[in-house]
Specification:
By secondary structure, this protein is of the alpha+beta class. The protein has five helices and 13 strands.
């Protein structure tokens, strides 16, 4: 408030703001990939003179990182481990989107299990709503609402197909944006092999819009391979369009990427590559979603 002021030596013992810090939690998720090789397979050099184990470790490591990213952006609820049955699941970014969200008819945010003004974790997943098409108004509303709530959204993230749909729309005459124009003079329009558009070079064709500049910030349009579709309440595949402030969300590691020998059976050795991590929203206002969108 612009009138928040107190006089010198004022007694503040009776002041009560009734504003409490909220404590949120998420669950760590153990993920692993297994490498099984024979003794001969470990000793023989393969392409580029790499040992087969090193090659498999690289491939399995890439696959494990994809799994971790898929979990981090998912709609999974924070789900506790069931002994000898199933492992714990972290609540993903799409689940932590609980502020200023826009959902189709019947859709609902995830529910935190803590009491009012306490926090908790999202132990129930968001409910899918009826499918609908995304509009520029939805995007502008989400960006403005986040700014009003203290966020400074930096990225808009969704599936590659959805990002392409938004980019293609921004090329049309219906979009309320300035017309795209080339900054390269006609004198530089020479052969494609003469350069990249600078100086005396050729001109690069612009085939996409990957940044949206609005009144409340600059948003980078980011395709994510690990985001997937889900089923709308009225059937059909839909996606989340997530907006987030990169200053806040992060990953937390109970155990970073490590290898652990499991067993040796005859001339075979088995090793697991594992990671134990969880997604941390940082500030829940830093994430929002335009959900139930037809890709």
């Amino acid at each position: 408030s612009a009138v928040n002021t107190y006089y010198e030596n004022q007694d503040l013992s009776g002041e009560v703001d009734n504003v409490y810090g909220q404590r949120y939690y998420n669950l760590c998720q153990q993920m692993c990939k297994t490498i099984k090789l024979s003794q001969r397979g470990q000793e023989v050099d393969t392409t580029y003179e790499q040992r087969e184990f090193a090659k498999q470790l690289l491939k399995r490591g890439e696959a494990l990182r994809r799994d971790e990213e898929a979990a981090a952006v998912s709609r999974n609820a924070a789900t506790a481990e069931v002994a000898a049955t199933s492992g714990a699941l972290m609540a993903g970014m799409a689940t932590w989107a609980i502020h200023n969200t826009q959902r189709g008819a019947g859709g609902a945010d995830a529910v935190l299990d803590g009491a009012t003004n306490v926090g908790g974790g999202p132990t129930t997943a968001p409910a899918a709503g009826n499918k609908r098409a995304i509009t520029e108004t939805m995007m502008r509303t989400a960006i403005r609402s986040g700014w009003d709530d203290g966020a400074r959204f930096s990225h808009l993230m969704s599936t590659g197909t959805m990002i392409e749909t938004i980019s293609n729309y921004l090329f049309t005459s219906s979009a309320r944006v300035a017309t795209l124009e080339s900054e390269v003079s006609q004198g530089n329009r020479k052969g494609a092999g003469d350069g990249n558009g600078a100086g005396a070079g050729g001109v690069v064709a612009q085939g996409s819009v990957n940044m949206f500049v609005g009144n409340y910030g600059t948003i980078i349009l980011t395709p994510n391979r690990q985001m997937s579709t889900y089923t709308a309440a009225d059937t059909g595949d839909v996606v989340d369009v997530l907006l987030f402030d990169k200053r806040y969300p992060t990953m937390c590691y109970l155990n970073g990427y490590k290898t652990q020998p499991i067993s040796a059976n005859g001339l075979y050795k088995q090793t697991t590559l594992y990671v134990d991590s969880t997604f941390i929203p940082g500030a829940t206002r830093s994430i929002t979603t335009i959900a139930d969108i037809t890709p």
